[in-house]
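Notebook entry, structure prediction.
Reason for the run: the old model in the group folder had no record of what sequence produced it. Starting over properly, with the input documented here first.
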Amino acid sequence: MPCPAAVCTFASEAQALELANDSEYGLGGAVVSADAERCRRVAEGLQCGIVWVNCSQPCFCQAPWGGVKSSGFGRELGEWGLENFLSVKQVTSYISDKPWDWYSPQSKL
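New structure, fully documented this time:
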């Protein structure tokens, strides 16, 4: 049951999360409450990449930015955003004085 308006009423936290998560998008969401434990529970239950608690849309370059579902995959900003521009490479150095023996010696049998 999608919420047709920007602000909807709800009877319980479970219903609020159901309404909020009933979307193909998931960039950001907000929780406003004086109850810190409620804010934690609802923020954890929201299916989105960014959650603002008792504020709206501050952006910090150190924090990850990005959504879930049809709002995208991956993160921008902070160390998470840098990972998109990095490539992992394995470099192995043989340091023994013995010759490299890729295969065992042939059997004389």
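Summary: The beta strands are 25-26, 28-31, 50-53, 68-69.
The old model has been moved to the deprecated folder.
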